[in-house]
C-alpha cells in the first residue's frame, strides 16, 4: 500500500502541478489485459510471417519440420506448438497454404 504525506515546505515555479492519477485495481487489471491482448496480437502476426517465410522457401513441409523452423526463427519469444498449429489452421483458411491430399501432416505453400 502506498503512503503519501503532504510537504508544506515544497515550492515550485509553476502554480499548478500535474500529479499522476492513481488507478484502481480494476483499472490496473483492465490496462494489463489490454497490453496482454496487444502483445498477443503482435505475436500472432509475427508467427504468421515466420510460417509464410518458411513455406515460401521450402514450398512443401511436414508439420514437425515447419514447427521446428518457426521456433528456430523466433528471436523475441518462443511460440508453443498449440499456437503454431492454430496459426497454420488460420493460414489454411485464408488460403496462404493448403494440406496435402494424401498426408494431413504435410503442407503446401500457395503462391
TrEMBL record:
<dbReference type="Pfam" id="PF10557">
    <property type="entry name" value="Cullin_Nedd8"/>
</dbReference>
<dbReference type="InterPro" id="IPR045093">
    <property type="entry name" value="Cullin"/>
</dbReference>
<protein>
    <recommendedName>
        <fullName>Cullin neddylation domain-containing protein</fullName>
    </recommendedName>
</protein>
<feature type="domain" description="Cullin neddylation">
    <location>
        <begin position="39"/>
        <end position="105"/>
    </location>
</feature>
<dbReference type="InterPro" id="IPR019559">
    <property type="entry name" value="Cullin_neddylation_domain"/>
</dbReference>
<dbReference type="InterPro" id="IPR036388">
    <property type="entry name" value="WH-like_DNA-bd_sf"/>
</dbReference>
<dbReference type="InterPro" id="IPR036390">
    <property type="entry name" value="WH_DNA-bd_sf"/>
</dbReference>
Amino acid at each position: 500500500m502506498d503512503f503519501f504525506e503532504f510537504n508544506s515546505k515544497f515550492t515550485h515555479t509553476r502554480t499548478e502541478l500535474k500529479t499522476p492519477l492513481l488507478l484502481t485495481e480494476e483499472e490496473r487489471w483492465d490496462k494489463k489485459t489490454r497490453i496482454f491482448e496487444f502483445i498477443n496480437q503482435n505475436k500472432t502476426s509475427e508467427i504468421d510471417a515466420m510460417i509464410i517465410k518458411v513455406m515460401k522457401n521450402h514450398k512443401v513441409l511436414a508439420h514437425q519440420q515447419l514447427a521446428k523452423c518457426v521456433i528456430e526463427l523466433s528471436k523475441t519469444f518462443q511460440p508453443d506448438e498449440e499456437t503454431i498449429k492454430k496459426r497454420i489452421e488460420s493460414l489454411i483458411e485464408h488460403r496462404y497454404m493448403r494440406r496435402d491430399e494424401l498426408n494431413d501432416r504435410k503442407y503446401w505453400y500457395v503462391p
